Amino acid sequence: MRKTWIMILIAIIAVSSVFAGGAPESAAGGSTVLSLGTASLGGNFFTMGAAMAAEVSGKTDLSVTAQATGGSAQNAILVDSGEMSIGMAQASTVSIAVAGTDSFEGAPCENIRTMFNYSATPLHVVVRKNKDVSDITELAGCRIECLVVGDGVEMTTRKLLPVIGVPLDDVTLEFSGNRTQAASRLKTGQVDAILDATGLGAAWMVDVLKTNDFDIIELTPEEIEIICDAFPEMSPMTIPAGTYAGFDEDIQTVGNWTTVFCNKDLSDDAVYSFVKAIFESKDALVQAHSFFRDLAPENIVGSCIAPLHPGAEKYFKEVGVI
Question: Out of 1.10.150.120, 1.10.10.410, 3.40.190.10, 3.30.360.10, which CATH number does the structure's domain 2-120+258-318 have?
Answer without folding.
Answer: 3.40.190.10
